[in-house]
Design a protein that fits this description.
By secondary structure, this protein is of the alpha/beta class. It has helices at residues 13-29, 43-46, 52-55, 62-69, 128-137, 150-157, 169-174, 220-235, 281-295, and strands spanning 3-9, 33-39, 75-79, 91-96, 104-108, 122-124, 142-144, 164-168, 183-184, 199-204, 244-251, 254-262, 269-277. The longest helix is centred in the N-terminal third of the chain and has 17 residues, at 13-29.
C-alpha cells in the first residue's frame, strides 16, 4: 500500500533542485511513498525588493512551516541556514544528505580575486555576515545590497549597477553555474553561515514514527558539524541576522569548530577555534560562544556581558 507524502518547497530553481535531490534519496530507501511536490511562496519570495535583515527570521521558511502545521503538506525541504535555531512548536527538523561545499564565492566582471579587485569596486551582498567580513578584509570596496534568486543576483552582478557579487558555493554548484566563480574563499578568510551548504527537512512531530525512516537520509559528519555551528548561533540568541560565521569539520572522533564575529563596519573581528567530541557537538558550539564573549565579542552580538 502506497503512503501519500506531500513535500513543500519554495519555487526557485535552486529550491526545486534541492527538493528533487531529497525526493530521489527517499525513493532510494523506500518504494512505498507516493510523493508529490507542492510549491509555496515564502515572505522572502513575495517581497523581492526588501532586504533579508528587514524581513527578519523565518522569511524563507515560515510559510512552509505553516503549511505543515495546517496539514497542507507533510514535510518541507529547506536550506538549513534559512531556518531559525529554535524549533517551531509541533515540528521536527532533520538534516539530510551530505553537505555541499560550505564556502562562499566571489563572482566579478574581471574574474579577479578579492585582493586584486580595484578600489571602489561595487560588490553585491544581502548578508550582514558577508558584508562585515568583506569590509574587514577589503574596506576600500563598495558593498551594495542585492536581492533575488541566485540566477538573478549573478545577472545583476555582471550588469551596469554592480561589479561583482558574493554567494554560497553550494547554490551555484547545484545550479550548474560553478564556472562563473572567480574565487572560492577559505573558510578562515570568509567564514560561512552556520549550516551553509546543508539541506534540512521538517515535518510534524506527530508523524515522527511514520517518517522515522527518513533519518536514514542523514550523513553523520554533516549532522555533527552543523549541530555544532548552530549551537553557537543559538547561544548567541539569533538566527542568520548576526555577523557570525562558523564552520565545523569532523576528523575521526574529533570535531573542530572555527568561528568568527565581525563588526558590521568591519572594524573589529574576533576569531576562535575549539576542538570537541563528535558525541556532543552542542558543547563545542557553546564553548566557542563562551570564548568569543570572553574576548569581548558580546557587544557585537548585542549582548550585555555579566
Amino acid at each position: 500500500m502506497m503512503t501519500e507524502l506531500r513535500i513543500g518547497t519554495r519555487g526557485s530553481r535552486l529550491a526545486l533542485i534541492q527538493t528533487s535531490m531529497v525526493v530521489d534519496a527517499i525513493n532510494e530507501i523506500r518504494e512505498d511513498f507516493n510523493i508529490s511536490t507542492i510549491e509555496i511562496k515564502s515572505e522572502g519570495d513575495l517581497k523581492p525588493n526588501e532586504m533579508v535583515p528587514q524581513l527578519g527570521l523565518g522569511a524563507f521558511t515560515s510559510e512552509l512551516e505553516k503549511a505543515i502545521l495546517d496539514h497542507k503538506i507533510d514535510l518541507a525541504v529547506h536550506s538549513l541556514k534559512d531556518l531559525p535555531t529554535i524549533e517551531t512548536q509541533g515540528l521536527k527538523t532533520i538534516v539530510v544528505l551530505k553537505r555541499a561545499d560550505p564556502r562562499d564565492v566571489l563572482l566579478n566582471k574581471w574574474s579577479k580575486t578579492l585582493i586584486d579587485l580595484p578600489d571602489g569596486a561595487r560588490i553585491g551582498t544581502s548578508s550582514p555576515r558577508r558584508e562585515a567580513q568583506l569590509k574587514h578584509g577589503r574596506p576600500t570596496l563598495q558593498y551594495l545590497p542585492i536581492r533575488g534568486n541566485v540566477e538573478t543576483r549573478v545577472k545583476k552582478a555582471l550588469s551596469a549597477d554592480y561589479d561583482g557579487v558574493v554567494l554560497a558555493a553550494a547554490g551555484l554548484e547545484r545550479l550548474g553555474m560553478a564556472s562563473e566563480v572567480s574565487e572560492y574563499f577559505s573558510t578562515r578568510i570568509l567564514t560561512p553561515a552556520p549550516g551553509q551548504g546543508a539541506i534540512a527537512i521538517q515535518f510534524r512531530t506527530e508523524d515522527l514514527e511514520k517518517l522515522k525512516v527518513l533519518k536514514n537520509l542523514s550523513d553523520k559528519a554533516t549532522v555533527v558539524s552543523v549541530e555544532a555551528e548552530r549551537s553557537l548561533l543559538k547561544a548567541a540568541g539569533s538566527g542568520c541576522m548576526l555577523p557570525i560565521g562558523a564552520y565545523a569539520e569532523v576528523s575521526n572522533d574529533l570535531l573542530n569548530l572555527f568561528a568568527t564575529v565581525t563588526a558590521l563596519d568591519g572594524s573589529q573581528s574576533y576569531r576562535v577555534e575549539v576542538t570537541g567530541s563528535i558525541n556532543d557537538p552542542e558543547i563545542a558550539g557553546k564553548a566557542a560562544f563562551s570564548e568569543l564573549v570572553d574576548q569581548g565579542a558580546d557587544q557585537l552580538m548585542g549582548l550585555n556581558k555579566l
